[in-house]
Design goal:
The structure holds 2 protein chains of 2 kinds. By secondary structure, chain A is an alpha/beta fold. Helix content of chain A is 36%, strand content 16%. In chain A, helix 6 runs antiparallel to helix 7 (97-105), helix 8 (111-117) runs antiparallel to helix 10 (143-156) and helix 11 runs parallel beside helix 20 (470-490). Helix content of chain B is 28%, strand content 31%. The two termini of chain B are 18 Å apart. The chains are: A alpha/beta, B alpha/beta. The complex binds flavin-adenine dinucleotide (FAD), iron/sulfur cluster (SF4) and FE2/S2 (inorganic) cluster (FES).
Chain lengths: 492, 291
Amino acid sequence: MKTKESLNSEAVEVLKNLDGKALTPRDRLGLPCQEMPEQVPADRAHNFSEVALGYGEAQARVEALRCLQCKTAPCVSGCPVRVPIPEFIKLIVDGDYAAAARSIKTVNMLPAICGRVCPQETQCQAPCTLGKSLHSIDKAVSIGRLERFAADFERENGLSTTPTVKPETGKKVAIIGSGPASITCAADVRREGHEVTMFEAFHKPGGVMVYGIPEFRLPKAIVKREIDALAQMGVLIDTNVLVGRTVTLAGLFGELGFNAAFIGSGAGLPKFAGIPGENLVGVFSANEYLTRANLMKAWDHDHAETPIYPSKIVMVIGGGNVAMDSARMALRLGAQEVHIVYRRTGAEMPARAEEVEHAKAEGIIFDFLQAPTRVLGTGTVNGLEVQRCELGEPDGSGRRSPVPVPGSERPLPCDTVIVALGNESNPLLKQATPELAVDKRGRIIVDENGMTSMPAVYAGGDIVLGSATVILAMGEGRRAANAINALLAGAS
Amino acid sequence: MNRIVSKYQLSDEVFRIEVEAPMIAKARKPGQFVIVMLEEEFSERIPLTIADADPDRGTITLIFQTVGASTHRLAARKPGDSVGGILGPLGNPTHIVNFGTVVCVGGGIGVAPLHPIAQALKKAGNRVIAIVGARTKELIVMEAEIRAIADETIVVTDDGTYGRKALVTEPLKELCGASPKPDLAVAIGPPIMMKFCAEATRPFGVHTVVSLNTIMVDGTGMCGGCRVSVGGETKFVCVDGPEFDGHLVDFDAMMFRLKSYKNQEDEAHHRCHLDLEIDKAKDTGRLQRAD
Ligand SMILES: Cc1cc2nc3c(=O)[nH]c(=O)nc-3n(C[C@H](O)[C@H](O)[C@H](O)COP(=O)(O)OP(=O)(O)OC[C@H]3O[C@@H](n4cnc5c(N)ncnc54)[C@H](O)[C@@H]3O)c2cc1C
Ligand code: SF4
Ligand code: FES
């Protein structure tokens, strides 16, 4: 594996050979795709530091030069918030990295985060002309890596600026939750001069980005920067408040005098497989496992008071990002053997391609076409019984559905089972607020402006979409902020 | 940050603290609990039941036993010190109506969460018979407060050092056997006690409510760490409970789950004893107040 330095020196050579000459599209197609420098798998499987190290300057320049600057910019239509991709890439080519970051931030408040966690291969990079011309999506422009480069450059060089806040309006807006939907909504509403208070149930703000997504994929210092930026704008952050219990939604409007509210409470209800043995000691939801490890810092054995289960052989049920994160976390916490048990094949796995590659390189074992039927053990887990599957007809999601083969059951010995089947909607706020309309899966129903069935109450993110993504949650936060700002501007 | 206003040591291992938490003091109802963190960064989240609240002063009262490292550290805090954070009130409030006659059984420090429930039941017009029990005299807490509410109070200790020498299940069975039998039993205490209370009332068909205290992380329904099997269905104690039909709870599985981290906890507890050099009985019975 090449080091960050050697990859960057190769890129320096490439730039030298180009010697500043004007490039034809053919030249651009011939430029080498820039590989992401990474920690060596053998090392990173035992530490908690970030795996992907980020492009050096020369690598970023070469990758940016690969972009064809398409007039139609198909990449932009693949991006849920329409980042001006060719524009910011051009700014990287020109060497004005801070300007590139500012350009992204006109529509995406959290580029350092999105550059790291967005599923680019199904969004902006999927329709990229370059990838199409080279007949491989892996050869598309690495838009996410460039986004990260620009954002990291701005942050590391102290060039980020706090958005300006208009004069105080005296109107009060409550933001419930502190994930990406809430962060975006809070910033956009505060900008207009409204007083904004963010209520978070946990002791630390950030939502899934702090309790779920691990440090080795998204350093917590980066999330904290964004929260600090909100505080600098004057957003009040009130942790340890569970809206619905500590104070009701009605109480926010009545007693506490808020004029509008945004609900960004996330999905937050772990799905279990519904198989026998799931309440044995040694079975965890991915949420519990990851929260203990990330938010409660159980990985830091010398300081943390929250214990984590000492595992030797771990079976992770599921094939999404949550499953990859759980598996890779278990490995870093000292498990000797970690398996991903998935009912379909690699082709159907919903996890980001990069996470799957990283997991494989670190030695996670993938058991495809296996459906768990029972957790084995008395009191404590000693195995997971699985049944072999074959792929049948496509189901509602368009993926071929797994058909179990009767009689093919076999036990897989293990001491830990992590159930990573995703999340449904947490019903707590709904139960405390009967007038809030939700659909049959418990997701809050909103109109095209993000407004709920209750006046002046808006919602967005996973609580509306079901388990979705950081970028979609941000988009929803912004949409609701626009509506809240319009509402408060009208009602003066 | 929440400031500790006063602290009182009830026995060797049992402490009562009053702590500032204005929003919780206003919102809490009998049967609910809180999660306490001693410090922001590395602390555990400790679920504790709310024994009392004073909405005017903006304080809540917590009674806890020093069972592990974190509760020992909490016990070492003084009035005027703070805890890192308190989340609550959590869980569903107790269903309070006029049932008729209710037997309230409290074992050990289970009497603390039982107190506001008994109070509310009495206020709703019920005849309240209380059974207060503990291993030994030292560990009987809040007897006076319970006597002040209940129509009848029976005190028992396992070793006979105080009250009747019996387990709480004995008077409970007698009451269920009498006629008319009670309309409801509420049992709060160690899991094993609640299990046997449920067994005691089962043959008499007396509906029995128990309040469970499982391992928890968030307390908001997000992690599932608190799950128990109730009537064959998985329930989350923090949001579906903490109170359940005692005749349906799988207590054996629950008790097993409570021991999930026994080894790590023993190690932490040991480390903490060395750190704090706890001199346990020293302050017993002394009230400390912050100015
Ligand atoms: C392990 C894991 C890995 C993931 N990986 C990726 C990835 O790589 N890329 C990607 O794009 N997406 C990923 N996702 C999904 C992504 O994190 C979510 O879609 C996104 O965070 C949703 O944002 P949100 O703002 O809706 O809420 P959340 O981030 O879920 O935050 C909601 C917050 O609200 C708080 N809250 C809830 N109820 C209340 C209440 N009543 N009162 C006060 N506070 C409350 C919660 O404590 C929480 O902090 C992942 C999710 C998980 C679990
Ligand atoms: S589609 Fe690809 S090549 Fe075209 S502008 Fe977008 S990133 Fe550049
Ligand atoms: S404590 Fe996490 S769901 Fe109950």
